[in-house]
Each structure stands twice: as C-alpha cells, then as structure tokens.
C-alpha cells in the first residue's frame, strides 16, 4: 500500500489528486476571482454599496455560526467513514438547518433593514437568505472527498463556482444592478457548487428526512458548534458595532480594508487549512510523532512568510489603495495597516486550529476563542472611547494574539 506520508520539500512536483499543489492552485484561482470581483465592484459602486452588501452577508454569517452543527469536520476527522445511512442523516440535518436559516432571515429582513440603516433595501437580505439554503442541500459527499484528500476534485468544484460568482457579479454590476450584483454572483456560484457536489462526487446520500445514526459525531461536533458561537462574537462583533452606529458608508470602508488584508494574508492560510486538516488527521492516525513534526514545519514556514508580508504591505498601503480602489477609499488606509497584523495572526491561528482538530482537541480552539472574547470585552469599550473605530481594530489585534498564545501553549504542553 502506498504511504500517504508527504515529504515537506518533495524532490519532484506532485500532481496526484491528493497533492498540496491542488490546494494552492485552488487558493490562487479562487481568491483571485474573489479579489477581482470585490475590488472591481468596490471601485464601481463605492463604500456605501459595499457596506450595504456586507450587512446582508453579516446576517447570514451570524445565523450560520449560531447553528453550526460541526458535522462536516466530524466526518473528516472520524476514524471510520460514515455509512450510507449515516451520510443520509448528515444531509438531512444540514438541509433542514439551511432551510430554517433562510426562512428566519427572510422573516427578520424588515427588522434588520431598519436597524442597520439600509434605507429600504430589504431585497438584499432576502437575496442573501437564499445562500444558506443552497449550501444546506449540497451533497455531503463533499466531506467524504475532503476526508479522502481528493484535492484535485475539490479544486475543480471551487474554482468553477468562484469563476461563475465573479463573472455573473461583474456583468450585473456593469449592467447597473448596484449592490445586488454582489449577491446575485454569490447565489449563482453557490448554485453551481451545489449542483457539482451531486453530479461529480460520490457516494451520494439517500434523500430522506432521517436524523438518526450520527450521535457518535456529537462529542466532537459540539466543540465545533461552541467554537462557532464564540467566533461569531469575535469575528462579527466589530462589524455589528460599526454598522449599527455608523451605517453602511463607514462599514464599507471598514469592511474593504479588512477584506483586502484578508485576501493578501489570511486567505492563503485558511485555504491551506483545507489541505492541512485532513492531512494532519491522516498522519495523526498513523504516526503521532511524524504528524507533530510536519505541523511544526508548516507553522514555522507560515510565521516567517507572514512576517515579511506584513512589513511590505504596511509600507505599500496608501499606493495600493489608490491604485486598486481609487482616492475615495484612502480613508481606509489606517485601518488596513492594522488589519494586516490581524490577518497575519489569523493565518497562524488557521494552522493551529487545523492541528488541534486533527489531533482530536477541538475544545482547545474553543477555549482560545473564549479567552479572545474576554479580552475583547475588556479592551473594546476603552479602545473605542479613546480611538474610535481604530481602537476597535487594535482591540481585535490584542484578542487574536491572546487566542494564538493560548493555543500554542496548549500544543506545547500536550507534546
């Protein structure tokens, strides 16, 4: 049997279906399409339209975080692959969750529109409510392919969806659809992705409303859910405050500076975690010592590369915004300089979380999120009073650093 062990620096390029090459290719292509879409639409529409879309997507993120089942990660991490019936129960659970989220968002759309100063753009929230429904009915065979490290197939699905999202969104923006163009593109991309999970991936689950037989995933997935709830506060709290107090215009500048920093720094590590989680899991099942060694190598490489990128991006911030987005966005430059630090720490956290979940310690990541939340509760009020929106960004930095420090401490202690 061929070993699954991957050399850290292979002597020759590997292009098999489970090679890291496909994850990196997916990252470059997908994030490239996302960058083109958001930056081009941001330049066309300006900060206020981006802020309005961000509020609609914020509602989706909140609802999905509060109802995260953790089943996807549990299927990937479990020692045994799910049976045909168990896979059907996974699909039924996720489909019902997506439907309930969509209906809840639609019902709350008028309230959210008034609370976040959308000036009657209730249709943005209604359109965003379609996204969790499409994601929920996708085939859970996607998780099986991830478990089997079928990165070539995953890359094909993700890049196809990203291209559709970008192309449809840009066409709509140039046709005068305004803020709706972003959401129309997202819906088109998710629709294609869902269709591809059913047509290109196997095994296909039975389509019936059965929720039994997956109780053994609960012990693992409950920590994923708890982490998602805490991360809801950590990742969306600042955006809710800015949207509620300052409205779409200021949120647009805040969100774009964060998004650009994320594209340039955190997205690479987050996408790489799609490779690292199943790879660490497979190595950990076979040889714990070798898995720890592989983790340390990836962590050191990520830390060195991110430190260099932070320095470069902070120096190039103003010219970058002026060139890519135009003078209307220059007020976001000070925030961007803070967010590149935030996103670099977030990228390190993505590697740490991949290891913790693969090693069967998801509760450590949840504990780190709780620590981060406590730090934010202490620092955000003071920082906001003294420095306003910039203070919120710096408070996020302190919180992220605290979470990363706790995870590193626990990993070293468990070694």
From TrEMBL:
Per UniProt, which keywords does this protein have? Cell membrane, Membrane, Transmembrane, Transmembrane helix
The transmembrane residues are 49-66, 87-109, 121-145, 166-188, 260-277, 298-317, 329-356, 368-387, 393-412
User: Major location, coarse class?
Assistant: membrane
Q: Where in the cell is it found?
A: Cell membrane
Query: Sorted alphabetically, which InterPro entries does this protein's record hold?
Result: Poly_Biosynth_Transport
Note the superkingdom of the native organism.
Bacteria
Membrane topology term reads: Multi-pass membrane protein
Question: A GO CC term?
Answer: plasma membrane
One Pfam family name from the record? Answer: Polysacc_synt_3
Tell me the protein family, please. Belongs to the polysaccharide synthase family.
Q: What is this protein called?
A: Polysaccharide biosynthesis protein
Q: Which organism is it from?
A: Caballeronia ptereochthonis
Recite the lineage of the species: Bacteria, Pseudomonadati, Pseudomonadota, Betaproteobacteria, Burkholderiales
């Amino acid at each position: 049997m061929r070993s699954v062990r991957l050399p850290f620096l292979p002597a020759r390029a590997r292009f098999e279906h489970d090679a890291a090459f496909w994850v990196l290719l997916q990252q470059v292509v997908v994030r490239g399409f996302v960058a083109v879409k958001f930056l081009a639409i941001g330049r066309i529409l300006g900060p206020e339209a981006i802020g309005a879309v961000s509020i609609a997507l914020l509602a989706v993120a909140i609802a999905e975080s509060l109802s995260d089942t953790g089943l996807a990660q549990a299927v990937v991490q479990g020692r045994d692959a799910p049976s045909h019936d168990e896979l059907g129960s996974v699909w039924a659970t996720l489909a019902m969750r997506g439907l309930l989220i969509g209906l809840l968002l639609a019902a709350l759309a008028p309230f959210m529109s008034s609370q976040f100063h959308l000036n009657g753009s209730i249709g943005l929230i209604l359109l965003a409510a379609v996204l969790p429904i499409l994601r929920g009915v996708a085939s859970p065979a996607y998780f099986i392919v991830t478990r089997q490290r079928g990165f070539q197939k995953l890359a094909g699905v993700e890049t196809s969806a990203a291209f559709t999202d970008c192309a449809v969104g840009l066409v709509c923006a140039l046709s005068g659809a305004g803020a709706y163009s972003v959401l129309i593109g997202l819906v088109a991309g998710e629709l294609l992705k869902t269709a591809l999970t059913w047509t290109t991936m196997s095994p296909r689950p039975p389509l019936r409303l059965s929720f039994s037989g997956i109780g053994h995933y609960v012990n693992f997935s409950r920590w994923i859910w708890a982490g998602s709830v805490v991360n809801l506060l950590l990742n969306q709290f600042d955006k809710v405050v800015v949207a509620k107090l300052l409205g779409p215009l200021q949120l647009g500048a805040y969100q774009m500076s964060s998004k650009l920093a994320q594209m340039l720094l955190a997205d690479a590590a987050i996408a790489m975690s799609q490779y690292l989680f199943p790879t660490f899991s497979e190595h950990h099942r076979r040889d714990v010592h070798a898995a720890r060694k592989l983790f340390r190598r990836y962590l050191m490489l990520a830390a060195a590369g991110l430190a260099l990128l932070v320095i470069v991006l902070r120096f190039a911030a103003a010219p970058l915004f002026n060139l890519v987005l135009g003078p209307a966005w220059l007020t976001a430059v000070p925030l961007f300089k803070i967010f590149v630090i935030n996103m670099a720490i977030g990228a390190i956290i993505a590697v740490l979380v991949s290891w913790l979940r693969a090693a069967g310690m998801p509760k450590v990541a949840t504990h780190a999120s709780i620590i981060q939340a406590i730090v934010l509760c202490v620092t955000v009020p003071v920082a906001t009073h003294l420095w306003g929106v910039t203070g919120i960004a710096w408070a996020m930095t302190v919180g992220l650093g605290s979470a990363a420090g706790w995870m590193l401490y626990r990993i070293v202690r468990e070694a």
